[in-house]
């Protein structure tokens, strides 16, 4: 039977799996629900991972014994104790080859930079920043404590500014009126009462509204977007301070909905704040699924050296295969 390498990228709502042969050819992909233990529990993660492995192996006509190496890049793997917690889950999957468990932000890093040397800024539903050199890797906590929180932070910041406008501290703009209306409220007292009493939870689905108003020049929306973009840029500055890149250019991958929305305000503030301190940083937006980064990560610890041919084969196919 052919030998294959497995990469799995598990987020809060969706998990992707990819099998490649030892030349880097994609032989099968699969998708199912989320694999973040914080949301669904450890037992459900094990069931979900086992299911997706069965599916992707069946598509490739291989067995688990044919998987010589694998990387599980999962959301919620933020601390050393998470590794300990989930280690029995990975063991129970019964894969013959070496298995490694990493935070899903590193899958995005390897997907954009095959060497895995550089930084990644995730600004999606939530936020996460990470970086890696040959000797060290670091990541933020993913708790919105001292770091950017993606679309969740965007909505929270907008809500704070709307409240300030309601108190007469700052001027009311279109954001003040349109955000409550988007969730069914024309009366601001009723809106804030519902928020205060826990009857209304504002989620990341409101992010496009804020971005659209920022594009139209709404002052409060622009301030909201600017604050979040600035924090995500500062997060990367902090990551770089903890790593030694020397004088070499620093590659930075941008991933997640806020980074890929092509919002001029967010993009310009993020780049400007970042380059104030890191003029040698080179930004690129991730255009392929992070699961290919999980595969690349597994290849790095299977092969003594990942060949340029393997990298070229995988990267050229990654933009063409739908999962």
Report on the structure:
- This protein is α/β, with parallel strands linked by helices.
- The protein has two domains: 4-115 and 287-318, Nucleotidyltransferase, domain 5; 150-285, Nucleotidyltransferase, domain 5 (2-Layer Sandwich).
- It has helices spanning 37-40, 42-60, 80-92, 104-112, 150-166, 174-182, 188-196, 207-215, 219-242, 257-260, 264-277, 291-302, 308-318, and strands spanning 4-10, 15-21, 26-32, 67-74, 98-103, 118-123, 127-132, 137-139, 250-255, 281-285.
- A five-stranded mixed β-sheet has the order 3-2-1-4-5, with helices on both faces.
- The radius of gyration is 21 Å and the shape is globular.
- The chain starts with a strand and ends in a 5-residue tail after the last helix.
- 42% of the residues are buried.
H/E order of the elements?
EEEHHEHEHEEEHHHHHEHHEHH
Strand content: 15-25%
What gyration radius follows from the Cα positions, in whole Å?
21 Å
Q: Which percent range fits the helix content?
A: 40-55%
- CATH fold description of the largest domain: Nucleotidyltransferase, domain 5
What's the average pLDDT?
95
Q: How would a crystallographer describe the biggest sheet?
A: 5 strands, mixed
Give the strand order, joined by hyphens, for the main sheet. Answer: 3-2-1-4-5
Calculate the terminal CA-CA distance, rounded to whole Å: 24 Å
Any guess at the CATH architecture of the largest domain? 2-Layer Sandwich
- Look at the structure and give the CATH class of the largest domain: Alpha Beta
How many independent structural domains?
Answer: 2
Instruction: Using the alpha-carbon principal axes, give the shape.
Output: globular
Unreliable stretches (pLDDT < 50, length at least 5) are none
* Structural class by SSE content: alpha/beta
| CATH superfamily grouping of the largest domain | ATPase, nucleotide binding domain
SS element count, helices: 13
């Amino acid at each position: 039977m052919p030998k294959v390498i497995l990469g799995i990228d598990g987020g809060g709502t969706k998990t992707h799996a990819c099998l490649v042969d030892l030349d880097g050819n994609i032989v099968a992909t699969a998708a199912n629900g989320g694999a973040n233990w914080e949301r669904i529990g450890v037992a459900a993660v094990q069931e979900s991972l086992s299911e997706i492995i069965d599916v992707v192996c069946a598509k490739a006509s291989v067995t688990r014994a044919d998987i010589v190496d694998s990387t599980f890049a999962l959301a919620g793997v933020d601390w050393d104790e998470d590794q300990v917690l989930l280690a029995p889950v990975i063991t129970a999957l019964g894969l013959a080859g070496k298995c490694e468990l990493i935070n899903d932000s590193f899958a995005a890093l390897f997907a954009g930079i095959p060497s895995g040397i550089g930084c990644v800024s995730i600004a999606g539903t939530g936020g996460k920043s990470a970086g890696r050199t040959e000797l060290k890797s670091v990541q933020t906590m993913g708790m919105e404590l001292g770091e950017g929180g993606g679309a969740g932070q965007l909505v929270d910041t907008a809500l704070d500014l709307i409240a300030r406008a309601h108190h007469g501290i700052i001027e009311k703009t279109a954001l003040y009126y349109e955000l409550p209306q988007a969730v069914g409220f024309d009366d601001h007292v009723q809106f804030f009462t519902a928020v205060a009493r826990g009857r209304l939870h504002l989620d990341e689905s409101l992010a496009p509204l804020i971005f659209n108003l920022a594009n139209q020049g709404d002052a409060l929306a622009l301030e909201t977007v600017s604050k979040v973009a600035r924090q995500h840029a500062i997060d990367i500055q902090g990551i770089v301070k903890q790593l030694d890149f020397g004088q070499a250019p620093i590659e930075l991958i941008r991933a997640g909905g806020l980074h890929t929305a092509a919002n001029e305000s967010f993009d310009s503030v993020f780049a400007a704040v970042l380059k104030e301190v890191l003029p040698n940083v080179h930004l690129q937006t991730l255009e392929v699924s992070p699961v290919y980064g999980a595969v690349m990560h597994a290849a790095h610890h299977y092969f003594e050296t990942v060949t340029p041919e393997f990298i070229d084969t995988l990267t050229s196919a990654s933009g063409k295969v739908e999962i």
